[in-house]
Amino acid sequence: MNKTNDGNERHFHFGYMVVITLILTSFLPLSLGLSCAGLFFPAISEDLSVGKGTLGYYMSVLWLATIVFLPFLGRLFNGQDARLCVGGGVLIVVIAFVWLSFTRTLWHFLMGAFLMGIGVAILLFLAPSTLINRWFFKRAGFLLGIVMCFTGIGGVVWSYAGGLLIQAIGWSATYLVFAVMSALTLPAAVLMVRSKPDDIGVKPWGWTAEAEEAAAEAASNMTGIPASEAFRMPVFFLLLINTLLLNFGMYVNAMIPSYISTLEISVAIPLLGATASSVAMAGQTVAKLVLGYVGEKRPYISTAVGVGLGVVGLVLFVSGLHQVAFIYAAAFFYGFFYGITNVMNPILTKRSFGNLEYPKIYSRIAMASSIGSMTSGFIWGALIDATGSFNAMFYGVIVMMILAIVCLGIISRLAPKTAY
Among 417, 363, 412, 416, which residue's Cα sits nearest to residue 229? Predict the structure, then answer.
């Protein structure tokens, strides 16, 4: 362990124990609860005699819970021991899985989604950014990116494994297996996390008096547009619209297994839906890595290309080309699109308005993202059940993606060049 108070990097720093814990919670409870949610929809839909679109309300209820509880949980995280908060987030996910394993009615299922949303709010939105920024004076962004990639990596691994389990032991028992797997991270949450470096008498990794002085000087020289002015600018409203449009397309990810279960080829290849979901998660992971590298340099082009790949993926889904290779290609291209928002929305906001009051401005953009994710499930789910087909959802999302590309073009022309 680091015995010094100056952020000396020659010794192993406890901050890396915190990062390892966050990687574990992203790889297990978070990816199992979020990335693998759609795996269960086809089997539960059949057993409960509930429409596949209606079961998709799960995602909307999950995001509703995050919107409702995030403000309260944010204050709790700032005032309570981080071990209690991270461990509590894991425990809530475990309880949600156990609850879901006993699902017998739709309301029971959706209540499990609400519980899962509270856990997701802690483990996805609060714990990584809060703890990494507390523990690392340098490299915080890089380490946060690594932690967030493990939700996608977990999705790749556990989507296929989950599909095998559902086929072998049923969806109810698989939820219990996921509960046990998630609970395995509880010891790390309790033993490998501390709220702040001061709690154990060290400084954040990379801290020096000179570095702190340089950071303070840089903060005093930040450029950008005040939030009060930004909120009146057309670019801000276009970013809100663009974010809503993009997040209306995120619902498709959870419905990939359900859609593929309606194809004739799924009879011959029962695990095709689970495998395609894994491929989509692989596309998401690749997108985060690629966009993390090129997004800052070419934000508008990078986002447009990612959305364009998503359009290609959805066109392949509705084209009638239901051979395995085309399904996997469609899933990968769509998955690349699915990885856009968490990476590019912050970059587009900063490019448009600068750093001066970035947190205040981005919080509004993030709220639009959550609202889009929440409402899309109700709309697309109802449309799927009303039409008896997934095509209306696919065509609707394609139109919204194209409109998002148009928005990006306008934003790139209107965004003030002096903001960054």
Answer: 416
